[in-house]
Design a protein that fits this description.
120 residues, alpha/beta, Rossmann fold, 5 helices, 5 strands, 48% helix, globular
Amino acid sequence: MRILLVDDEYELVTTLAERMELRGLEADWATSGDDALARITTTSYDVVVIDIKMPKISGIEVKRRMEKIRPGMKYIFMTGHGSEGDFQEGSTEVGGERYYLLKPVAIESLLEKINEVSGH
């Protein structure tokens, strides 16, 4: 399974990617919406994990643009802000709260969500 992690926190995405690879998943990462969009033009991912709050372009807008480029990918949103508004917007965008995680994200919880949304 191939995963793309998108978060403006470098330490977070690189650590998550490393931990996923130790568990046998292929994990790429991006620290901006633009970088993530560039990555999906050359690579198809099973699941994209996106931070909702990022500079320049929100995670929700990144997801909307990705869907036009590569329909069929699955998405999980995460946020460290935890506001009710973010939760409502994020969970509505991906089809329910089961596709939404609050930071700090435990790797086991994230892997469980990835398996759930991908059908594995």
